[in-house]
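Sequence and structure are no longer studied apart. As an example, we show below a sequence and the C-alpha cells encoding its fold:
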Amino acid sequence: MLKIIIKEGESIDRALKRYKRKHRNIKVMQNLREGQFFTKPSIKRRREIQKASYIQNMKDQENI
C-alpha cells in the first residue's frame, strides 16, 4: 500500500501529484492487467527483445 505523507505547508494538489507518480512508477495497474491472462514465456521474451530493439533504434537515431 502506498503512503504519501503530506509535508507542512504542502498543497493537496502537490501531494496528489506525488501519489500518482509513485503509483505509476511501481506499475500497480500494469501488474494487475498482466495477471489477468497467462502469457507464454516465449511471448514475454519476444516482447522484451522487441522493446530493446525499439529503444536501440531510437538511441541510434539520436546519434545521427
